[in-house]
From TrEMBL:
Residues 36-88 form the Acetyl-coenzyme A synthetase N-terminal domain. InterPro entries: Ac_CoA_lig, ACAS_N, AMP-bd_C, AMP-bd_C_sf, AMP-binding_CS, AMP-dep_synth/lig_dom, ANL_N_sf. This is Acetyl-coenzyme A synthetase. It comes from Actinokineospora spheciospongiae. GO terms for biological process: acetyl-CoA biosynthetic process from acetate. Catalyzes the conversion of acetate into acetyl-CoA (AcCoA), an essential intermediate at the junction of anabolic and catabolic pathways. AcsA undergoes a two-step reaction. In the first half reaction, AcsA combines acetate with ATP to form acetyl-adenylate (AcAMP) intermediate. In the second half reaction, it can then transfer the acetyl group from AcAMP to the sulfhydryl group of CoA, forming the product AcCoA. Residues 539-617 form the AMP-binding enzyme C-terminal domain. It comes from the Bacteria. It catalyses: acetate + ATP + CoA = acetyl-CoA + AMP + diphosphate.
Length: 655
């Protein structure tokens, strides 16, 4: 059994938490989805998903809902054909909603754009014509590294329209990280911007992509959106300004329908080894579950609601709950470019007040940051438009949950704590706001049509009141279809642990409470969760040892009051190197350059030894004890039992 990688603040008072908050009768009355959905889905799961797929426009009806004969490779809506972009744009115009606002875009410096569904459709068509003019054909990969601009959404949908596979790389990832993702997917085109606004200042973006594309032979063109107007280097023939390429195109484009299993995108995420995995998603099943869960979990009423998800499109949350789910549902949403404290700490609340946001979806780490800034800040704004609040990315601690409900939700707004992963594609476990009596800190119950279980090492479901591992025991429409170019790793990572039972192993610890509700307990593998971002310990360790002064490194995730976990690194320097005041900074900057600023260790401790078992495995559990200032636990399996004393005393004398 793998040891628990660390437990965030979520666990503080889980065992004593017993408050329950049922929805109001009025909410339940008007809710999109009621209690009966669970039984309906249980009675016939495939019929249930077929009904949900009918929310979309299909060019050709499927002949079979699910083909699981080649498990773990699923086929959903076999034989069905659709165009994902048409489903997210054109069909709303055809239904008479062309004048409805799709996107209220808010730029960090205060500029804004309002984009209706009619305009969205025209922009997507123009962009699709532009990409087609570069010779891209269905199945080709397009990399996108961009800030939160409308063009990022146009680009993703234009890819979908042409059957191109997009690979969006978070703007905060380094050139080295971008390069390896471009290489892995052999992307032909990269779409980026000259720069981005971050914390009130223009910051470069193309500089970063230039460093990557200097070494990526597969890239034929770099398309550059003008955002900050800053100077950029230019490679004639390869680089193209978005305005010039897209601006001159026709805004009409005849879309082709693609197979339900046509690949839609690849999104890289950290695993337990150093190399990120390209998670593959396809079209029909993904869009079905994205649309259904957005409708059910957020109770979206497209005619009335103004929805806002604060994620970045570089993560799966941005893909499913900014681009595909909301747009498939014809929602009106806010898309915000910048940081939450620019130019002031009330920026989010100001945007909610200004646009009358009714549904707000964010991450626990941000909620805890808002708590730190103080309740008086949201107190200055009118937040009465809010009617559903969502949380995603890590277990939410009951204290933050209660603050969210009281301070942002006026003590009455339902909170949906949504558990899912890049791999699941869409929400899997969550309360339904009109049905569930919510519990602070629990994601509670698999959605209708979804099955999840908490099992022990042997794969046997644990009784209520006990903990174990979370597994998904039935296929679901938006499940990953593989890891790009690595079938073996796909089987190995997710399907080998419970091969006999055919369960998908999620990598999370979980428990049932006495009512059978699910409480997520954090990762059980060597994956850390920092501000809701997944980072593997091995990835940071490889970055550290790639520095010439480092001989060995061990990384652990230590509980952090704001970010959930913080990265703490223990390093052994090479013989000739000595630690001085600049060592930690040098190494932190090195990790930022190798992976990105999000992976910078919070703390770097120089040590002479690392605790290892006799087989040479680093005992991270003991290092975590040190990192969290705890009494060091059982050291009897250490090859050298004095190592921990050496580390502890060394740290004391250097402190
Ligand atoms: C991991 C997936 C899903 C989009 C954001 C992260 C953790 C996510 C919750 C939640 C407890 C959660 C899990 C999961 N996680 N949401 N509501 N409660 N834990 O996507 O980067 O693929 O990370 O995030 O540990 O395995 P991701």
């Amino acid at each position: 059994m793998t040891e628990q990688s660390g437990q965030g603040p979520a666990l503080d008072n889980l065992s004593t938490e017993s408050r329950v908050f049922p929805p109001s009768a009025a909410f339940t009355e008007a809710a999109n989805v009621g209690e009966s959905a669970y039984a309906e889905a249980d009675a016939d799961r495939e019929a249930f998903w077929a009904e949900q797929a009918s929310r979309l426009s299909w060019d050709t009806e499927w002949s079979q809902v699910l083909d699981w004969t080649n498990a773990p490779f699923a086929k959903w809506f076999v034989g069905g054909r659709l165009n994902v972009a048409v489903n997210c744009a054109d069909r709303h115009v055809e239904a008479g909603h062309g004048e409805r606002v799709a996107i209220h875009w808010v730029g960090e410096p205060g500029d804004s754009r309002t984009i209706t569904y009619a305009e969205l459709t025209r922009e997507v068509c123009r962009t699709a014509n532009a990409l087609a003019s570069l010779g891209l054909v269905a199945g080709d990969r397009v990399a996108i590294q961009m800030p939160m601009l409308p063009e990022a959404i146009f680009a993703m949908l234009a890819c979908a329209r042409l059957g191109l596979v997009h690979s969006v790389v978070f703007g905060g990832f380094s050139s080295a990280a971008l390069r390896s993702r471009i290489d892995d997917a052999q992307a032909r085109v990269l779409i980026t911007s000259d720069g981005q606004y971050r914390r009130g200042k223009p910051a470069p973006m193309k500089d970063n992509t230039d460093e990557a594309t200097a070494h990526t032979p597969s890239i034929e063109h770099v398309v550059v959106v003008r955002r900050t107007g800053s100077d950029v280097r230019w490679t004639e023939g390869r680089d193209l300004w978005w305005d010039e390429l897209v601006g001159g195109q026709s805004d009409v484009h005849e879309a082709e329908a693609f197979d339900a299993e046509h690949p839609l995108f690849i999104l890289y995420t950290s695993g337990t080894t150093g190399r990120p995995k390209g998670i593959q998603h396809t079209s029909g099943g993904y869009l079905t579950q994205a649309a259904y869960t957005h409708h059910a979990v957020f109770d979206l009423k497209p005619e009335q609601d103004v929805y806002w998800c604060t994620a970045d499109i570089g993560w799966i949350t941005g893909h499913t709950y900014i681009v595909y789910g909301p747009l498939a549902n014809g929602a009106t949403q806010v898309v915000y470019e910048g940081t939450p404290n620019t130019p002031h700490e009330g920026r989010h609340w100001e945007i909610i007040q200004q646009h009358g946001v009714t549904i707000y979806y964010t991450a626990p780490t941000l909620i805890r940051t808002f708590m730190k800034w103080g309740a008086e800040i949201p107190g200055r704004y009118d937040l009465t438009s809010l009617r559903v609040l969502g949380s995603v990315g890590e277990p939410i601690n009951p204290e933050a949950w209660i603050w969210y409900r009281e301070t942002i939700g006026a003590g009455s707004t339902p909170i949906v704590d949504t558990w899912w992963q890049t791999e699941t594609g869409a929400i899997m476990i969550s309360p339904l706001p009109g049905v569930t009596a919510t519990k602070p800190g629990s994601a509670q119950r698999p959605l209708p049509g979804i099955s999840a279980k908490v099992v022990n090492d042997a794969g046997v479901e644990v009784p209520h009141g006990s903990g174990g591992y979370l597994v998904l025991d039935q296929p679901w429409p938006s499940m990953l279809r593989g890891i790009w170019g690595d079938e073996e790793r796909f089987r190995d990572t997710y399907w080998s642990r419970y091969a006999e039972q055919g369960f998908y192993f999620a990598g999370d610890g979980a428990k049932y409470d006495a009512d059978g509700d699910v409480w997520l307990l954090g990762r059980v593998d060597d994956v850390m969760n920092v501000s809701g971002h997944r980072i593997s310990t091995t990835e940071v360790e490889s970055a550290l040892v790639s520095h010439p002064t480092v001989a060995e490194a061990a990384v652990v995730g230590a509980t952090d009051a704001t970010t959930g976990q913080g990265i703490v690194a223990f390093v052994i320097l090479r013989g000739s190197a000595t630690a001085d005041a600049s060592t930690a900074k040098t190494l932190r900057d090195h990790v930022a350059a190798e992976i990105g600023p999000i992976a910078k260790p919070r703390q770097i401790l120089v040590v002479n030894e690392l605790p290892k078992t006799r087989s040479g495995k680093i005992m991270r559990r003991l290092l975590r004890d040190v990192a969290e200032n705890r009494e060091v636990g059982d050291t009897t399996t250490l090859a050298d039992s004095t190592v921990m004393d050496l580390i502890s005393s060394g740290l004391k004398s250097s402190a």
